[in-house]
Amino acid sequence: MIFTKINSLKGKVSIPGDKSISHRAIMFGSISEGTTEITNFLQGADCLSTIDCFKKMGIDIENRPDAVIIHGKGMRGLKAPDVMLDVGNSGTTTRLISGILAAQNFSCTLNGDESIQKRPMRRIIKPLSMMGADIKSIKGNDCAPLEIHGTNLHGIRYDSPVASAQVKSAVLLAGLYAEGETSVVEPYLSRNHTELMLKCFGADISSKDTTATIKPASRLQGQKVIVPGDISSAAYFIVAGLIVPDSEILIENVGINPTRDGIIRVVKQMGGNIDILNKRTVAGEAVADIVVKSSNLTGTTIGGDIIPTLIDEIPIIAILACMAEGKTIIKDAAELKVKESNRIDVMVDNLKKMGADIQATDDGMIINGGKALHGAAIASNADHRIAMSFAIAGLIADGETEIIDAECVRISYPDFYKDLESLV
Ligand code: S3P
């Protein structure tokens, strides 16, 4: 797909459902009693992988145009799948579902695509094994495919070496079924959707600073879940509105949970013209509309506890930094190396091809902004966030920017190109 320079972006866009929240609603609804109704569910390939896995374990899930309806079977209602569970490209599916599967009274295997087979699973295998789980990497390389023999678990207090909501959630979900209390302590607080949503479903779960604690549950109750728009998807329009000249975009229905809103804080730090309007709470999550206008930006330093709150937005923040005057340093973000692609290397290589002054570091990147970008052929590495970031870069670069494997946006934002086109 080819992108060229444009003069302005104007109009409004309504953001599709949050990926993290959509996954969790399917999982929690499946192990609850009664019906769970999910509106504004994200119809991205990753969330469809989660639906598929639970259908294979006997859960009746209706994916209707107006809502997803889950007929939950309770905490002990999953049945052994006849086939291997296919998690596709989804790290969230793989890690969270493992926490549930570790406690079932059946065995199963799970696997996904080429990218998922390279992503580190030791980070969940270790704490789940400490809880008594029987889980192993079939190839012995600490990656999927995984083989899980469900068994009885006991609670632990786990000091996680990484701030990862996927690790935290896997352990907490296992903790739902374990004997005794389970706590996860993180170096920095990661997104807390599991804690917020499990509480609504009736779990005894609490948080203090960077520690989340869960007590075993005998039952969960199905809920109505209204999924807020995904700030990670809104991020592309936030940056586009700031860097394309003569632009003003209204971005509606954006989840602004404080464990996810780092990009807003960074944009303000860089001098971006951004307004947060109509703040409200929807199903326990903070939501707002956002207006962005073309801005003169200055470089900044991004590191420490803000990193987990914007980890998926770093690729598009790197594009923003290229358009800011001065130096931007992104540090403490080594986790980027183990996402759908190595997002440090892939961003740096592709931005260099476009003429940016950027260098990779061990835990991030350093960008000297203010240099014009020119078009290039961009290897997205089939990583949805890389493809969307460079689609936006293509709107301000001279010449043609070609995104290779552009259709990978189906993972988190199937209508991304259509929504972008509507603003031109
Ligand atoms: C997610 C957590 C983050 C994020 C991913 C979704 C989640 O991963 O990058 O896109 O839904 O819990 P980590 O928890 O591994 O940082």
Description of the structure:
- The chain has 424 residues and is α/β, with parallel strands linked by helices.
- The protein folds into 2 domains: 2-16 and 228-421, UDP-n-acetylglucosamine1-carboxyvinyl-transferase, Chain; 19-226, Enolpyruvate transferase domain (UDP-n-acetylglucosamine1-carboxyvinyl-transferase, Chain).
- The chain is 29% helix and 26% strand.
- The chain contains 12 helices and 23 strands.
- It has a 4-stranded mixed beta sheet with strand order 2-15-17-16. The protein has a 4-stranded mixed beta sheet with strand order 4-5-3-14, covered by helices on one side. A 4-stranded mixed beta sheet has the order 6-7-9-8.
- Helix 7 (231-243) runs parallel beside helix 9.
- The longest helix has 13 residues, at 165-177.
- It is globular and about 60 Å long.
- The two termini are 16 Å apart.
- The model has no long low-confidence stretch (mean pLDDT 98).
- Residues 20, 92, 164-166, 169, 190-191, 311-312, 335 line the site of shikimate-3-phosphate.
- Shikimate-3-phosphate (S3P) is lined by residues 20, 92, 164-166, 169, 190-191, 311-312, 335.
